[in-house]
Design goal:
11 strands; three-stranded antiparallel sheet; globular; Rossmann fold; 2 domains; single chain; alpha/beta; six-stranded mixed sheet
Length: about 350
C-alpha cells in the first residue's frame, strides 16, 4: 500500500469523528503566567494586556491557570511564591505544563535572569525547580536577553521559546505581544487543522515582530528561537518552510526543532478536545515514530518503508476512531423516559 493510499484511508476513517460539543474535561494542562517587574507604568499596562490574552486562551482551552504578578507589598517575594507553586504542580502527567514569562530580562555575560519583584529568577534556578517534573514542560520567555535560558533548560521533555537569539540582545522585546495574540488566533492556523499549535504561534509572532521593525524603519534587535529536540541550540523561524524545518538533522534519530511544538495547542480543536490526554500523548508518540521513519526513507527498501508506515498509520486510526465512536455512542443514547 502506497503512502497516498494510507493518507486517504486515514482521512476516511477520521471523517467519522464527531464534531459535537461536549463539556470540557476538568483540565487539559496547567498554565503558569509569570508577570515580572515592569519598571514603569507603561510597561506594566503592556504586560498585563499580554497576560490577559493568555488567561483568556487558558479559559477557552480548559487549562488550569495560575497568574503570578509583581507585588511590592507581598509578605513573600515573588520568587518564593513561584517556587512554592512550581513545587505544587503535578510532576508526572500526560497533559503539559506551560510556563509563560512576561517582563524584562538581563544578562551579565554569564548569567541570564528574569526580573521579578524582589530577587530575580536565573535560568539555572528555574532549571533546578523543574528537575522533578517529568511531564512535557513548555517554557516561553518573552523577555530581553532570554536566549541563555535555552542552553540551561534544554532537555528531551521540554519545549522552549525565547524572544532573543543571544543574551546580548538587551533591548525591550516585542515578541511577547505578538505571541500572546497568535496563540489563540484561528488565523495563525497555518496547516488549517482548526487549531493553532505552539509552532504556528511562534512562526506568526516572529513574522509580525520583524514587520514591526520594518514598518518603523529599524534594524531588529530581537530574533526569537525555538528548541524542542533537547540539543540546546535553538532554531530561528527562517529555518522553516510552512510548518516544517527545511534543514537536515545533524545526527540520526534526532528530530529537527519544531516537530514537537507543532503537537501542542493551548486551545484544541473540537476533534482533539474529545480525546483524553492519554490518547493524545500516545498519538504524539506514533507521529514522532512516523517522522523518524520519514527521515530514514532513503535508507530503506521501498516496500519495507511503506509497510512500516502502514502499521503506524493504522495504529493511529485505531487509537482515535474507537475513542470517537465511543463518544458518538454516548451522545446518541436516547434520553430516559420522564416519569409521569
Amino acid at each position: 500500500m502506497k503512502f497516498p493510499c494510507l493518507i486517504l484511508m486515514l482521512l476516511s476513517m477520521l471523517s467519522s469523528v464527531s464534531q459535537a460539543e461536549e463539556d470540557q474535561p476538568p483540565s487539559r494542562g496547567d498554565l503558569l503566567i509569570i508577570q515580572g517587574s515592569a519598571g514603569t507604568e507603561e510597561y506594566g499596562e503592556m504586560f498585563s494586556t499580554w497576560a490577559k490574552r493568555w488567561q483568556v486562551a487558558a479559559e477557552k482551552g480548559g487549562v488550569n491557570l495560575f497568574h503570578s504578578q509583581p507585588e511590592t507589598t507581598a509578605e513573600e517575594s515573588q520568587k518564593a511564591i513561584l517556587t512554592q507553586k512550581i513545587n505544587e504542580v503535578a510532576k508526572d502527567s500526560q497533559s503539559p505544563l506551560w510556563i509563560v514569562m512576561i517582563g524584562h530580562g538581563t544578562f551579565d555575560g554569564r548569567t541570564a535572569r528574569f526580573n521579578l519583584s524582589g530577587p530575580d529568577l536565573s535560568a539555572q534556578e528555574l532549571d533546578e525547580l523543574l528537575v522533578p517534573i517529568t511531564r512535557t514542560t513548555i517554557v516561553i520567555n518573552c523577555a530581553s536577553s532570554s536566549a541563555p535560558f535555552i542552553e540551561k533548560l534544554s532537555q528531551a521533555n521540554r519545549i522552549l521559546l525565547t524572544s532573543t537569539r543571544s543574551g546580548e540582545q538587551i533591548n525591550f522585546s516585542h515578541f511577547g505581544d505578538y505571541l500572546s495574540s497568535a496563540i489563540a488566533d484561528p488565523a495563525a492556523d497555518l496547516d488549517k487543522d482548526k487549531q493553532t499549535s505552539l509552532l504556528e504561534a511562534f512562526l506568526i509572532a516572529t513574522r509580525k515582530t520583524l514587520e514591526f521593525y520594518e514598518a518603523d524603519g529599524r534594524i531588529p534587535t530581537e530574533n526569537s528561537l525555538l528548541d524542542d529536540n533537547g540539543d540546546g541550540k535553538g532554531t530561528r523561524a527562517t529555518a522553516f518552510q510552512g510548518v516544517r524545518a527545511i534543514a537536515q538533522p545533524e545526527e540520526a534519530g534526532v528530530l529537527l526543532d519544531g516537530f514537537r511544538a507543532h503537537q501542542f495547542h493551548l486551545i484544541e480543536s473540537d476533534t482533539d478536545k474529545h480525546l483524553s490526554p492519554e490518547i493524545i500523548a500516545r498519538r504524539n508518540e506514533l507521529e514522532k515514530k512516523i517522522e523518524l521513519l520519514r527521515l530514514q526513507k532513503n535508507k530503506l527498501a521501498e516496500d519495507d518503508y511503506y509497510n512500516q508506515l502502514e502499521v503506524l498509520f493504522l495504529e493511529i486510526a485505531e487509537l482515535i476512531v474507537p475513542e470517537s465512536r465511543t463518544q458518538n455512542s454516548r451522545e446518541n443514547q436516547p434520553e430516559p423516559a420522564k416519569e409521569e
